[in-house]
Every structure is written in structure tokens, then in C-alpha cells.
Amino acid sequence: MKPQPKNLKRRIPNPNDSLTLRANGFRAIGIVAKMDLVESKTEKTDLFTALEVCPVDYKAGAPKEGEEANELWDTDKMQLGLQALILRDNGYICNEGVIYYRATKQRVRLPITPELENWILQNIADAKRVIAEPIPAPLVHSPKCVRCSLAPVCLPDETRMLAQTTVKVDVSVDGKTSESPQPNGEAPRRLIAARDDTRPLYLNTPGYRVGCKDEVLTIKDKDKLIEEVRMRDVSHVALFGNVQISTQAIQSLCEQEVPVTYFQWVAGSTESRAATH
Hints:
Blueprint lengths: L18 E4 L9 E4 L1 E4 L12 E7 L4 E2 L4 E2 L2 H16 L6 E6 L4 E6 L2 H19 L18 H4 L1 H7 L1 E7 L6 E7 L15 E5 L4 E6 L2 E6 L2 E7 L3 E7 L3 E2 L1 H9 L4 E4 L4 E3 L2 H4 L1
Parallel strand pairs: 4-7, 11-15, 12-16, 15-17
Antiparallel strand pairs: 1-2, 3-4, 5-6, 7-8, 9-10, 12-13, 13-14, 17-18
């Protein structure tokens, strides 16, 4: 029997203190699992008795609605089943797993059956075969891409846009035809929000005065310079309480289309005409 990891206790109370195990047993599937929680089903009475455990995984969403009761999604079933097989390969008895869905506050159990084990091993074999094959073409306007966490890595629309088609173009030098790559011309969808390099400027210290020098805002406390901020780095200025701002600073901010908001007893704002139309 393999030695048990020292950090596998009766219950790991903190999901952040996860347990990482590798499948090194007879299957040799080459999978590593990081488990949120492992519960002990029985007490270990002697060195020759295997410990029965149950992996528990946490999900933010809700379970799949079945005909009779809630069920696990296939991806959750694959992940939890792999955790159970890896625990078995490390010398533990594992007959079921549990996924806790935070949206519905439910624990959904998954029995580890031979049919489930064969299904998991078959999916692993299919995944390894796909890895060895050429990368498939990206999806075309799939609604799944909008909520996919791997969209910044896959970049389906950007990949298709950069894929170039070959067309024939006449070359006037020798009169022969040559092949020149041309883009397909289809614009990508905006799946990822554009990066905003500007930041809001909040000032709430009484007595501060905001002025400007060229395109730089100067923040002073009486005659002491507190901070200098470039206007191009500011998305808007918010003043709370007794904070003064010069007319020159307001004019420069309006030219940069940076709004100024005042919060005291009555809230108000100053914006340029270009920013409101």
C-alpha cells in the first residue's frame, strides 16, 4: 500500500488548502488533480486498512436539471470522476464524489461505477488523440464563445480574420500572374472588453487645491505639492467635500474631454460639449 499524504486529514476545512495528487497507478493516464476538499468516510483502525474517502468540489453555478433529480454536467462529472480514480490509484477507497453548487446550495453525489470509469478513460484517450492531431479550425460566430473563459486564449474571430486566402494578382513587371495573400475581410466580434488605460481621480481631503501645469494636474495642500497626475491618464475627476479646483484646470480637463464631478451637499458635474454629444 502506498503511503498516505500527510495533509489528507479527516476533513480539509478550508477549500483554499487544496490537495494535489497524481495518478501513478496501474492506469498510467498521466493526470494531475487539485482537489478542493477530501472527506474521510471511515476511521483508519490499522495500517493494513485502506482509508475510504470522498472528494468534494465547489462550483459557482447550478446543477443540470434531470427528469427525476438534479444531475451533474458532463464536465463536472469528468472532473469529479477523475479525482476519484486518482484517489484510488493512491491507495484509497473511493466509491462516490460530491459537487457542491453554490447557486442552489446543493450537494449532488456521483457514484463511481465501472461504466463511469470506462467513460472517463475513453474521454482521456480521445483528448490525447486530439492533441496529437492538427489544431481544428475556430468556431464561426458560436454563442458559446461569448461566455467562454478561454476566449482570450483561443481568439476564434481574430484567428479567422488573420487567416488569409490566396488570390491571383497580375504583376505588371513581367506580365506573369503570381499568388498574393489577401485577408478575408470579416471583422471580429468584440468578445473581450477593450483595455482602458485611464483611471479615475478621487480627492476627499479638505483643503486640497487642484491646479494644472501644461497637461499635468497638480494637487497641493496649501503650498506643499502632494501629487502630479497627467491628464491623459485620468478618466474623470471626483471631488468630495472642501476640495478646490482652478478654472484653468477645469478648462484643460474639458479640452481633454475629462468630466469633473463635485460631491458635497448637492452633487454636480462639469463636462465638455464634445463629451456629451
